Here is the input.
Amino acid sequence: MIDLRLLRDDPEHVRAAYERRGGVPGLDSVIALDRRHRELLAEVERLRAEQNRASRAIGRAEPSERERRIREAREVADRLRALEPRLEEAARELEAAAARLPNLPHPSVPAGAGEDDNVVERHSGEPPDLDFEPRDHVALGERLGLLDAERGAKTSGSRFVYLTGRGVLLELALVRFAVDLLLERGFEPVVPPVLVREEAMYGTGFLPAEEHEYYRIERDDLYLTGTSEVALASMHAGEILDDALLPLRYAGFSTCFRREAGSYGRETKGLVRVHQFDKVEQFSFTRPEDSWDEFEAIRANQETILQALEIPYRVVIMCGGDLGSSAAKKVDLEAWLPGAGRYMEVTSASNTTDYQARRLQIRTRGEGGTRLVHTLNGTACAVGRTIVALLENHQRADGSVTIPPALRPYTGFGVIDVGE
Here is the structure.
């Protein structure tokens, strides 16, 4: 949630920032609701003060004045009782409307309405020079016995896949490789819950704006998380952290669940747009003045992993209209896929500044007092998509796949071929 004081004091600054998102519906409504709430609050506070004065006047009144003072105090109390429910309703309406306002984009975020306005910052690594017709990851995975989409669909429906054989070993190797790298950089490993309460989804900004993307278990009033960011952010909800202990860095490993609503007909085969996948996620709590340095550190970790895996990629800066609700800035790394002949997002990094912390009430205390922390997140390894990129970039003419040297200590093998 944005700071409503900023909206109150400088609405045109907020409006101009939202223009880089392509405009934000409901802004004028929030401004009007905030004004109404403050007017009602001022009147309630005035009446409460008047009620206190009237109560004191009764105690000091002469016997001849006492009945009149009691009558006046009763009239103030009646007006207050009538107004307080209106104030409570105004507060609820304001909170519900303000919850739909996204974070303000950082000044470095390019303006734009959607993905067509995203900016490619640079490329890293050379696409493999293949002298044969490359296969896509589905053909490679099925040939090598690494995945079984047909039986996944039989068991669970479309967009579910069995990982099998060395596909499982490849997943486990990637997870441990990513976690080990993050351990060296001060991240504490965490396996968080994947079922969370509504407050956790709301606190991280996935509700109410993106509710259509996530599975809800109605019987237990819980949500299946689409990223461990939700549970990691909520670990410290309602807490005051020690400034001296920041940044707190976590490497979360979890299974993730997404409906992939709105992607009908796109990439329905294989490991790209599945409903269930595993991921290692970076998450940091920082002092506000340190958050952009931490953002660059998270981004550097992502690039280090892809470079070690010898996967060519490009760096894409999300425009304002393609930011999630909570992000002030978001940068994706997109891997080149020779078999598919296109780029595909494999990691994403976001600085959400104090947006999530305000909702979750996570603060830090230092010499200057208490203030909201900043929270940041970034994929370390989205396992399924990383397997896709590995298979397609390291395939050989005979349909086998080599394992990059950095990963071999974790796999125990250097080649994947039929029957091996």
Summary: The chain has two domains: 25-98, 115-416. The longest helix spans residues 63-98.
